[in-house]
Amino acid sequence: MCGIAGVLGGEETTAEPMIRALTHRGPNGIRTESAAGAALAHARLSIIDLEGGWQPLHAAGGTVCGNGEIYNFVELAAEHGLSDVLTTGSDFEPLLHLYAREGEAAFRRLRGMYALCLIGPDGRAFLARDPFGIKPLYIMEHRAGLAFASEPRAFFAAGMMQKVLDDEAARELLELNYVLGERSIYQGLRRLAPGEVVEVRDGRIVSGHRQSFLPRKAGEVSAKLTEGALRTQGAKSSAPSTTSWSPSPAGAGEELGLLDQLDAVLEDSVRVHQRSEVPYGLFLSGGIDSAAIATLMSRLNERPVTAFTCGFDAPGAKDERAQAERVARALDLDWRETSFGEEDFWRILPQVAWALDDPTADYATLPTHKLAEAAKGTLTVVLTGEGGDELFGGYGRYRRALRPGWLGGRPAEPRGASPQVLRAWREAARAPPNFSRLQAAQWADIVTWLPNDLLLKLDRCLMAHGLEGRTPFLDPAVSAFAWPLADRFKVRGGYGKWLLRKWLERTCPAAEPWAKKQGFTVPVEAWIAPRAADLARNLGRVDAVRRLVPDAAQQMQAGEGRWPLLFFAVWALIHLEGAQPDDALAALLG
Question: What is 3-210's CATH topology?
Answer without folding.
Answer: Glutamine Phosphoribosylpyrophosphate, subunit 1, domain 1 (3.60.20)
